[in-house]
Specification:
Distance between the termini: 51 Å
CATH topology: Jelly Rolls
Number of domains: 1
Largest sheet: 12 strands, antiparallel
Number of helices: 2
Strand content: over 45%
CATH superfamily: Exo-inulinase, domain 1
CATH class: Mainly Beta
Helix content: under 10%
Structural class: mainly beta
CATH architecture: Sandwich
Order of helices and strands: HEEEEEEEEEEEEEEEEEEEEH
C-alpha cells in the first residue's frame, strides 16, 4: 500500500473508532474543537441568590437543561463556553497522573446568583476522585487551581483534598505562598484551613486570554499562570473517613461557579519528572 494511502486509512480508522491522535511533541488534545466528546457534565442543585439550594436535588450527570456548557465560535475558532448559571463542572472521563496540562481561558460578561457583581470565579480541579457533588453539591474531591479574578493560581482543597505548601503567615487567616516559607498543611478543618494565597499576580486584564500550566508528578503539583509560578504543592493527599491516603491521580474538572468564562486549547502530555527550572 502506498504511504499516502496508508496514512489516509489510518486517519479514517482513528476517526471512526475515536482514537486519540498524539502529536509528535507528545501533546494530546482534551478538547477536540467540536464538542464535549471525552467529557461529562455535572450540575448541582439550583441555588437561590444567597447560594442556598432551592430543592437540594442535583440536576445531575450529563443533564444540562439551561445549556451551561456549550461550544461557541469565538473569532473563527470554537471554544468551550461555561455560562456559570448553575454550579457544576465538566470532567474528563479518563483519569490522569504524571502530566503537564495546559489550557487558555478568558472571562465573559455575565455573573449569577450570589456571585453577581463580584469577582468572576471558576476553577481547574485536578486529581478528582469519588462521587460527584461531594463539595457544595457540585464538585468531586480534588485539588483546586483557582481561576478567579485577582486570585488566579491560588489553592483550595476540595471535599477532602489537602496538601503541604511553604508559606508565610500574613494575618490570622491569611497564608501566602513563599518557596522559602514554612511547610504548612492546608486542609478542611485544619488550623490553617484549606485555602492558600499566591504572592504575585500574573493574570491579564479581563477579556484577554490567559494561559494556565499545571504540572503534576508523584505527590507534587505546580500552578503556573502566564508563565509565572504561583505555587508548588507537596504531599498531595486526601482524607476519607478519617484516613489519609495519597491523592496523585484522577479526573480533571473545570468549574461553573457563577460567572461566564471561555476555555480553549486544552491539552495534556505525560511527563517523567518536574521541570528543574521550577523546582530549584
Amino acid at each position: 500500500m502506498k504511504p499516502l494511502k496508508l496514512i489516509s486509512v489510518l486517519l479514517l480508522v482513528a476517526i471512526t473508532f475515536g482514537f486519540t491522535i498524539v502529536k509528535k511533541d507528545g501533546w494530546r488534545p482534551l478538547f477536540n474543537g467540536k464538542d464535549l466528546t471525552g467529557w461529562d457534565t455535572y450540575i448541582g442543585p439550583d441555588l437561590d441568590d444567597n447560594g442556598k439550594p432551592i430543592t437540594g436535588t442535583p440536576i445531575g450527570l450529563n443533564n444540562d437543561p439551561k445549556h451551561v456548557f456549550t461550544i461557541v465560535n469565538d473569532e473563527s475558532e470554537n471554544v468551550i463556553r461555561i455560562s456559570g448559571e448553575n454550579w457544576g463542572a465538566i470532567s474528563t472521563q479518563k483519569e490522569y497522573e504524571n502530566y503537564h496540562l495546559q489550557l487558555q481561558f478568558r472571562w465573559g460578561q455575565l455573573s449569577w446568583g450570589q456571585k453577581k457583581g463580584k469577582k468572576k470565579d471558576s476553577g481547574l480541579l485536578y486529581h478528582s476522585v469519588g462521587k460527584y457533588g461531594a463539595d457544595y453539591g457540585a464538585w468531586m474531591r480534588s485539588q483546586e487551581f483557582q481561576v478567579e479574578e485577582g486570585n488566579c493560581g491560588e489553592y483550595w482543597g476540595v471535599a477532602g483534598g489537602f496538601a503541604d505548601i511553604p508559606v508565610i503567615k500574613k494575618s490570622e487567616n491569611e497564608y501566602v505562598y513563599d518557596p522559602k516559607g514554612t511547610l504548612t498543611t492546608f486542609k478542611e478543618g485544619g488550623q490553617q484551613g484549606r485555602h492558600c494565597m499566591k504572592s504575585i499576580d500574573a493574570k491579564k486584564p479581563s477579556g484577554q486570554w490567559n494561559t494556565l500550566d499545571l504540572y503534576c508528578h508523584g505527590d507534587t503539583s505546580i500552578h503556573i499562570v502566564n508563565g509565572k509560578v504561583m505555587m508548588i504543592l507537596y504531599h498531595n493527599k486526601q482524607m476519607d473517613n478519617g484516613q489519609e491516603s495519597p491523592l496523585v491521580k484522577g479526573k480533571i474538572q473545570i468549574q461553573s461557579e457563577g460567572a461566564e468564562i471561555f476555555y480553549k486549547n486544552i491539552k495534556i502530555q505525560a511527563i517523567t519528572r518536574l521541570p528543574a527550572v521550577f523546582t530549584k
